[in-house]
């Protein structure tokens, strides 16, 4: 039986609608999370800590700390600690979201609810100004949590709309469309920053607002274009609790964590993904801060490099998807991780203000970024039991984009200890090495069989 019991034409229509959520949320992930908000919030925090109020002060290193809950926190490390905190909260919240989603009779509406809540937080970032870093910190935490919750639902829908042999292609096309959408908005914001070069702060705030509006507006397409389906396993298995949706969801979460021992290959891949995706996400979060604060590039220069990443990433995601169709997603992921190791090492060596090398590094990131993540999503979908996709994807999403914590914690601590972002970047190599070691222990065929899923033609 095909996915959702639909004929190919109907299935393709739903797949096309599904792609658009990658397009929608990538505006926030790219413009806000990856490029503008981290250095902007860092500047706001530095203003609060050191009292910098003019553009001439922006290249002076702030040596004063913020006082947060009785602790001294480096202003330059604040964003990375916030992402760490968001991930710890995600580890608690997202599995419950997954359990609820698996019982939901309308995943598209649930997707929309989380997405629109997150987009509202993103739009409110427009009002973060002056030295009010606390408001920005709360918005970043909430937007990250709502993004993660929406992606739990979104990723789980992939299993409902695509057969095993289609998932690498469908997942890669979604990522490619996401890069296109995120890149187009980023290009518009690049023009805005250039035109408003005499008022960069307002240009950044308008760009943050545009990302929230974009995310909200384009979420309408998947919400309306994907049909609701009854849950496959509404009782959540024999171990689920009675007495209401939330209580039953907690019961199923405990059952899932315990049940993971029955799927050792799935567990091993999840651990591998935890480490190597932490490295990927931290590089994404750190790149804009690294480019501005360590390498000395202007905000517009860093934004241009991210534009390169976005548009190269379209071809990279599609190429990785085609390659996976020939040799299997598992092998292509391994190759991608070795490329990531090289990217981090070259980033550590790059001289200050060397734009050609910085641009070349952006091209390399674009080639490997989308392909690695898209194939990880589709490969994982083959390793999880049917009817519990959202709950298992919630564990996956806890270490997905915007919710990594080991890497951001390492990056923030090393920067605070050394007062430099270079050793902080180099330290991330350990995450890729651990991820590769664990990935080598994954047997794809055994994992698919253990989950009781249909074996794809190419594994």
From TrEMBL:
Keywords: Membrane, Transmembrane, Transmembrane helix, Transport
Membrane topology recorded in Swiss-Prot or TrEMBL: Multi-pass membrane protein
UniProt keyword Membrane, yes or no: yes
Coiled-coil stretches: none
Keyword Transmembrane helix recorded: yes
Stored InterPro entries: Atg22-like (IPR024671), ATG22/LtaA_families (IPR050495), MFS_dom (IPR020846), MFS_trans_sf (IPR036259)
Spans traversing the lipid bilayer: 20-41, 78-98, 110-129, 135-154, 175-196, 202-221, 267-290, 302-320, 332-351, 357-380, 392-414, 420-440
SUPFAM superfamilies assigned: MFS general substrate transporter (SSF103473)
Pfam families per record: ATG22 (PF11700)
All residue ranges annotated as the Major facilitator superfamily (MFS) profile domain in the record: 265-459
Protein location: Cell membrane
PANTHER family for this protein: AUTOPHAGY-RELATED PROTEIN 22 (PTHR23519:SF1)
Protein name, as recorded: MFS transporter
């Amino acid at each position: 039986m095909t996915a959702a019991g639909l004929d190919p034409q109907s299935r393709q229509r739903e797949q096309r609608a599904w792609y658009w959520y990658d397009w929608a949320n990538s505006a926030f992930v790219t413009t806000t999370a990856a490029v503008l908000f981290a250095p902007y919030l860092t500047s706001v925090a530095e203003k609060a800590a050191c009292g910098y109020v003019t553009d001439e002060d922006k290249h002076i290193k702030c040596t004063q700390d913020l006082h947060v809950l009785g602790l001294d926190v480096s202003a330059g490390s604040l964003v990375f600690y916030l992402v760490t905190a968001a991930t710890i909260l995600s580890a608690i919240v997202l599995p419950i979201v997954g359990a609820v989603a698996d019982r939901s009779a309308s995943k598209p509406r649930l997707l929309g609810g989380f997405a629109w809540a997150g987009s509202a937080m993103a739009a409110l970032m427009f009002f973060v100004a002056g030295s009010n870093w606390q408001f920005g910190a709360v918005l970043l935490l909430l937007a990250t949590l709502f993004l993660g919750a929406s992606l739990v639902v979104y990723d789980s829908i992939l299993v409902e709309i695509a057969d095993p042999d289609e998932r690498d292609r469908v997942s890669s096309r979604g990522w490619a469309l996401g890069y296109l959408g995120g890149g187009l908005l980023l290009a518009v914001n690049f023009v805005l920053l250039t035109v408003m070069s005499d008022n960069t702060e307002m240009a950044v705030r308008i760009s943050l607002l545009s990302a929230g509006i974009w995310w909200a507006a384009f979420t309408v397409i998947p919400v309306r274009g994907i049909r609701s389906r009854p849950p496959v396993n509404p009782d959540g298995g024999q171990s689920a609790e009675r007495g209401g949706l939330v209580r039953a969801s907690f019961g199923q979460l405990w059952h899932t964590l315990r049940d993971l021992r029955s799927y050792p290959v799935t567990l091993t891949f999840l651990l591998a993904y935890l480490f190597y995706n932490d490295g990927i996400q931290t590089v994404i979060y750190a790149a804009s801060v690294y480019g501005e604060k360590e390498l000395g590039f202007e905000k517009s220069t860093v934004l241009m490099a991210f534009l390169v990443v976005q548009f190269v990433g379209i071809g990279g995601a599609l190429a990785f998807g085609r390659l996976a169709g020939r040799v299997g997603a598992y092998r292509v992921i391994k190759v991608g991780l070795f490329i990531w190791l090289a990217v981090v090492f070259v980033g550590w060596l790059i001289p200050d203000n060397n734009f050609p090398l910085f641009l070349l590094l952006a091209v390399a990131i674009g080639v490997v970024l989308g392909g690695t993540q898209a194939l990880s999503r589709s490969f994982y979908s083959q390793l999880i039991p049917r009817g519990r996709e959202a709950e298992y994807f919630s564990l996956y999403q806890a270490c997905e984009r915007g919710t990594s914590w080991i890497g951001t914690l390492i990056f923030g601590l090393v920067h605070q200890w050394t007062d430099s972002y270079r050793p902080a970047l180099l330290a991330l190599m350990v995450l890729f090495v651990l991820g590769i070691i664990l990935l080598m222990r994954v047997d794809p065929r055994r994992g698919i069989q253990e989950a009781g899923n249909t074996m794809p033609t190419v594994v």
